[in-house]
Design brief:
alpha+beta; three-stranded antiparallel β-sheet; 3 helices; 19% helix; single chain
C-alpha cells in the first residue's frame, strides 16, 4: 500500500496550495457516506481526493507534437479537513476522461468529454487487489458528465468541470448547504482541481486501473511505455446545485421588487 501512503503524504503537503485556490471552490455542501440522510451529513466546501490514473496517448499522424489521450482512474475522498478516509463507508470515484494536448505547450491541454462515478463502499478495499482497484464496487451515489477541463496555472494544476446526470443521484448521500437532498435537485455541478505526476505502477494499479478500468492489457499483459503510463493524482472536489436559469431570473426579479418597495418606503 505504498502508493496510498504517498497519496496521503502528498495531500498534507498540498493542503496550503489548494487553500490558495479558494476562488475555484463551490458554495458549501454536505455529504453522508452512509446514505442515512442530512442529519448524519458533514458540511464541506471541498474534499481532498487522491488516487491513480492510467493515461494512453495517441500522437497525431501529421503533427506528432499534438496528441489525443484518454485517462481512466480511481480516487478515494478523504474526510473534511484531513487526509484520512471517512469512518464507516469510504467514498470512492471511478472516472474516464479524454481530450487533446501539445507536447511543447502544456497550457494547450483540454479535456472535452468523460464520465465521473461516485460510490459509497462499506468494503473499504480501495487500493487493494479488488476488481477495478476497489473503486466501483460499492453503492452508486451519482454520475457526472465531464464538460470541460484545462490547466489553471503553470505549476500543473488542472481544473475539471462536470455536470450531474439527472436521475443518477441516490437519496441520502449528498445535500446542499441548506440540507436539501441533491437527488431532488437539478443542474448539479462538480469541479475537480488536480495535480498529477507520473508514478511506477505496482500490482494493484496494474490489475485494477490499467488492466481493469482502462482495459489496456491485451492477453492479460501490461506494457508501460512513454505513451501508456500511470499517474498519481492529488487534488480536491467540490459539488454545488446551481439554480436553473428560470429560477435565477425569478430570484433576481424578486430582489428587484424588494428593492423597489424599499425605495418607495424611503420616499
Amino acid at each position: 500500500m505504498q502508493s496510498l501512503n504517498r497519496i496521503k503524504h502528498g495531500l498534507s503537503i498540498l493542503a496550503l496550495a489548494f487553500s490558495a485556490q479558494s476562488a475555484l471552490a463551490a458554495d458549501g455542501w454536505q455529504i453522508n457516506p452512509l446514505g442515512s440522510g442530512a442529519s448524519g451529513a458533514s458540511a464541506v466546501s471541498t474534499l481532498n481526493v487522491g488516487g491513480i490514473g492510467f493515461v494512453q496517448m495517441l500522437p497525431d499522424a501529421i503533427n506528432p507534437g499534438i496528441f489525443t489521450f484518454i485517462e481512466h482512474g480511481a480516487y478515494q475522498a478523504f474526510s473534511p479537513g484531513s487526509s484520512s478516509p471517512f469512518a464507516g463507508n469510504e467514498i470512492t470515484v471511478s472516472y474516464s476522461v479524454s481530450g487533446s494536448g501539445s507536447i511543447v505547450d502544456p497550457s494547450a491541454l483540454r479535456l472535452t468529454t468523460g464520465k465521473i462515478e461516485l460510490f459509497s463502499d462499506s468494503n473499504r478495499d480501495f487500493g487493494s487487489m479488488a476488481t477495478n482497484y476497489g473503486a466501483d464496487n460499492g453503492i452508486h451515489i451519482a454520475s457526472f458528465d465531464v464538460t470541460y477541463g484545462y490547466p489553471a496555472n503553470s505549476q500543473g494544476l488542472v481544473v475539471v468541470n462536470a455536470v450531474g446526470v439527472v436521475g443518477s443521484f441516490a437519496s441520502g448521500y449528498l445535500f446542499n448547504s441548506a440540507g436539501t437532498d441533491l437527488a431532488t435537485l437539478s443542474n448539479i455541478q462538480l469541479q475537480l482541481t488536480l495535480f498529477n505526476q507520473q508514478i511506477d505502477a505496482d500490482g494493484p494499479m496494474i490489475a485494477g486501473v490499467a488492466c481493469g478500468l482502462a482495459e489496456a492489457c491485451p492477453e492479460g499483459k501490461f506494457s508501460p511505455s512513454p505513451l501508456a503510463f500511470t499517474v498519481q493524482d492529488i487534488g480536491s472536489v467540490s459539488i454545488s446545485a446551481v439554480p436553473e436559469p428560470e429560477s435565477a431570473a425569478m430570484l433576481l426579479a424578486g430582489l428587484g421588487l424588494l428593492a423597489g418597495v424599499a425605495r418607495r418606503r424611503r420616499g
